[in-house]
């Protein structure tokens, strides 16, 4: 409710700014022009959204799996951790613009390079939050499971894995927003469909309002995905739901 | 599935002791904690005592005197540096209840059978009758954070019982509870042990609790732990705190601790 009011006030100010002056509609179209484009180009936007939505959805899923797996591997093997943790951090400093053409060269123009890029930039928050949670698991809990006859594997599946799952999902929530940016950049460097592609094309054709409409769709999608993850966490991991802690 | 064999592989010193299932024999056992920096801290040094099968023995001593370490040695979670710890299969009930928040009360209690390879259904079928018998009926599906402290402790005890080991090592099971609940759980535990007799090692710093529950009380010295006195309580359970035998035992233990 409060968020809606805030958005409304923001849009009002924006509209006013474009009407009393502003940089002109080629640089900054008014909210009404963007809304027009949203309605007019809805077919185009929808088709491209399906492409980008698939990329982001699958990409976040890949990142969740890869990130969790990486965290478990690093948690279990101190040597591996010392050897590769700095590399993982370093991998995050490589700009996607540099990486993207290479991945397009390797994997082609389809879904492959997009998933790869999203996974590369999104697995990191998942891996870091999960690794922290694994490190923080109570040693007393391990003792308990062992005294009840658990094998090392069972200590992991019954104790550590469920304890780390909420953290992995928090990481995925952080990843959602950057996944959208990743998809746009990936499409930018080699694609013939998707909102990123549409964005690039519209800018080239001086259809600034349509480009902004694509941005609106992207932002709305990120928000939806974020709250879908909150919902999923509450549904799947009810014990982790802190009262009033996570955003509604 | 490699469940039990793995767990026992890390317990080379805990072999079966003579004297029937449930006996524990500690001979000149020593153990020191080795912090990453600094000198080793001896927790147990040349400690010897024996517990017969079916006996309830309380270990009382100043806090930090190595009682928890001793229980871990008996449960085979750590191996002694020197000496022998010969105990029949023992299971630890840790100080904090350590119920897994992602499992229901019933599934927490049924954890040991699950880990041993029983199906969820079979494990629940084993645990459910105990819920009935020990005053937890209706709480089977509750999550741990929905239970009171006393309830959690009961579930943790049933979980320990369901591990199916002849020796139970209870590490200050009631320390975190308020006085009233502690009193209630004491009676509850005495009743549960009457129905399900086991060898029990009860670590506590509550002398009254020891006198009410134990057949024998071992008073330990400050770290590193040695046995400084042994007090027998012969009145059969359940006992009240005002039973003459209990009062006498309390006085004797307090005297030895001084």
Describe the structure.
The complex is a heterodimer of chains A (248) and B (258). Chain A has 248 residues and is mainly α. In chain A, 81% of the residues lie in helices and 0% in strands. The model of chain A is unreliable at 244-248 (pLDDT under 50). Chain B has helices at residues 4-9, 67-74, 105-109, 111-115, 120-133, 149-161, 179-195, 207-213, 244-257, and strands at 24-33, 41-51, 56-60, 82-87, 90-93, 167-171, 199-204, 216-220, 227-232. Chains A and B meet through α7 and α8 of A and α1 and α4 of B.
Write the layout of secondary structure elements.
The complex is a heterodimer of chains A (248) and B (258).
Chain A: H1 2-20, H2 31-40, H3 42-76, H4 78-91, H5 96-107, H6 111-135, H7 139-147, H8 152-188, H9 195-204, H10 208-236
Helix pairs in contact in A: 2-10, 3-4, 3-6, 3-8, 3-9, 3-10, 5-6, 6-8, 7-8, 8-9, 8-10, 9-10
Chain B: H1 4-9, E1 24-33, E2 41-51, E3 56-60, H2 67-74, E4 82-87, E5 90-93, H3 105-109, H4 111-115, H5 120-133, H6 149-161, E6 167-171, H7 179-195, E7 199-204, H8 207-213, E8 216-220, E9 227-232, H9 244-257
Parallel strand pairs in B: 3-7, 3-8, 5-6, 6-7
Antiparallel strand pairs in B: 1-2, 1-4, 8-9
Strand residues, percent of chain B = 15-25%
N- and C-termini, Cα separation of chain B = 51 Å
Largest sheet of chain B: 6 strands, mixed
Indicate the overall shape of chain B: globular
Strand content of chain A: under 5%
What descriptive keywords fit this protein?
A: mainly alpha; 10 helices; disordered C terminus; B: 258 residues; alpha/beta; six-stranded mixed sheet; 9 strands; 34% helix; globular
Concise description?
Chain A has 248 residues and is mainly α. Helices cover 81% and strands 0% of the residues of chain A.
């Amino acid at each position: 409710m409060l968020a809606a009011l805030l958005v409304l006030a923001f849009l009002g100010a924006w509209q006013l700014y474009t009407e009393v002056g502003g940089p002109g509609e080629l640089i900054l179209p008014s909210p009404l022009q963007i809304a027009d484009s949203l309605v007019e180009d809805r077919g185009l936007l929808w088709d491209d959204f399906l492409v980008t939505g698939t990329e982001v959805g699958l990409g976040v899923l890949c990142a969740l799996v890869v990130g969790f797996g990486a965290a478990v591997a690093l948690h279990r093997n101190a040597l591996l951790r010392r050897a590769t943790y700095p590399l993982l951090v370093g991998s995050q400093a490589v700009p996607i613009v540099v990486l993207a053409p290479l991945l397009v060269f390797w994997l082609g123009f389809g879904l492959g390079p997009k998933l790869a890029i999203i996974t590369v930039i999104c697995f990191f928050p998942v891996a870091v939050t999960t690794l922290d949670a694994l490190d923080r698991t109570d040693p007393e809990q391990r003792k308990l499971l062992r005294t009840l006859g658990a094998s090392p594997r069972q200590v992991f599946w019954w104790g550590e894995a469920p304890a780390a799952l909420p953290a992995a999902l928090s990481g995925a929530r952080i990843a959602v927003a950057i996944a959208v940016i990743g998809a746009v950049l990936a499409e930018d460097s080699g694609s013939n469909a998707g909102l990123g592609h549409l964005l690039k094309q519209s800018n080239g054709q001086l259809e600034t309002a349509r480009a902004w409409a694509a941005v609106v769709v992207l932002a709305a999608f990120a928000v939806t995905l974020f709250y879908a993850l909150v919902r999923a966490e509450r549904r799947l991991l009810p014990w982790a739901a802190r009262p009033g802690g996570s955003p509604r | 599935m490699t469940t039990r064999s793995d767990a026992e592989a890390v317990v080379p010193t805990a072999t079966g002791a003579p004297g029937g299932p449930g006996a524990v024999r500690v001979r000149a056992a020593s153990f020191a904690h080795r912090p990453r920096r600094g000198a080793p801290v001896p927790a147990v040094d040349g400690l010897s005592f024996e517990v017969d099968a079916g006996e309830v023995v309380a270990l009382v001593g100043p806090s930090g005197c190595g009682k928890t370490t001793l229980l871990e040695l008996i449960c085979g979670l750590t191996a002694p540096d020197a000496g022998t710890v010969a105990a029949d299969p023992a299971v630890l009930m840790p100080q904090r209840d350590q119920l897994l928040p992602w499992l229901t009360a019933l599934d927490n209690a049924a954890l040991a059978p699950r880990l041993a390879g029983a199906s969820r259904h079979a494990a629940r079928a084993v645990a459910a009758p105990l819920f009935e018998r020990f005053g937890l009926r209706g709480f089977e599906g509750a999550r741990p954070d929905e239970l009171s402290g006393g309830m959690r402790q009961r579930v943790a005890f049933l979980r320990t019982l369901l591990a199916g080991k002849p020796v139970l090592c209870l590490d200050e099971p009631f320390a975190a509870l308020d006085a009233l609940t502690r009193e209630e759980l004491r009676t509850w535990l005495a009743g549960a042990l009457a129905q399900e007799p086991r060898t029990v090692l009860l670590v506590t710093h509550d002398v009254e609790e020891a006198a009410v529950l134990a057949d024998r009380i071992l008073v330990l010295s400050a770290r590193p732990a040695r046995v400084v006195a042994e007090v027998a309580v012969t009145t059969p359970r359940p006992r009240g705190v005002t039973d003459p035998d209990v009062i006498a035992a309390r006085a004797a233990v307090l005297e030895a601790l001084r």
